[in-house]
Amino acid sequence: MTDHDDHVEKFWSRLGGINSGMLGLTEDARLVPMSHYAEAETGRLWFITAKGTDLARSLAAGGKDAVHVVGDEGKGLFARIHGTLALSDDRAKLDELWNAVAASWFEDGQQDEDIQLLRFDLAEAEVWATGGSLSFIYQIAKSKVTGNKPDMGEHFTLSF
């Protein structure tokens, strides 16, 4: 396995274990917390939101450049992900993604008229992959004993 393949696998496997991040358009500094659904095979993330949100309304004229930022020390992944965010009317995908968490936001469940699916086609990700919180503690303790800087993991960029 090449370093690139290893980085891709590490990114998607760790991202799949993280439930949320901060999503926004690159033209606007405002990011909002959103749960994502990772789809490695297509290089996409999916989001379920309401049609009345600022984010959904801003996409009415078409897809826009966006950023999704995730960080989870326990999973050992910190990433800034760039791509194109667009509205989607894919009912089959909504059926596939629908769960109790999504249902809690919509009074009429999956049939609620306010549901809006968002598709995020990834272009690039800057990734910091660490050994997780226990590794962090070990690396800090080791640096105090040896005087060397701690090894905080890998930093790489992926293009999709």
Give a verbal description of the structure.
The structure is a single chain. By secondary structure, this protein is α+β, with helices and mostly antiparallel strands. It is built from 5 helices and 8 strands. Strands 1, 2, 3, 4, 5, 6, 7 and 8 form an 8-stranded antiparallel β-sheet that branches. Strand 5 and strand 6 (77-88) form a beta hairpin. The protein is globular. It starts with a helix and ends with a strand.
Describe the structure concisely.
With 160 residues, the protein is α+β, with helices and mostly antiparallel strands.
Distance between the termini: 18 Å
Mean pLDDT: 88
- DSSP E strands, number: 8
The CATH superfamily is known as Electron Transport, Fmn-binding Protein, Chain A
User: Could you please say which CATH topology applies here?
Assistant: Pnp Oxidase, Chain A
Query: Which bin fits the share of residues in helices?
Result: 25-40%
**Percentage beta strand:** 35-45%
Structure classification: alpha+beta
Element pattern in H and E: HEEEEHEEHHEHE
Instruction: Name the CATH architecture.
Output: Roll
CA radius of gyration is: 18 Å
The CATH C-level name is Mainly Beta
Number of helices: 5
Total domain units: 1
What about the largest sheet?
8 strands, antiparallel
Organism: Paracoccus denitrificans (strain Pd 1222)
Pfam family, one: Pyrid_ox_like
Protein name: Putative general stress protein 26
InterPro entries: Split_barrel_FMN-bd, Stress-Dev_Protein, YdaG_split_barrel_FMN-bd
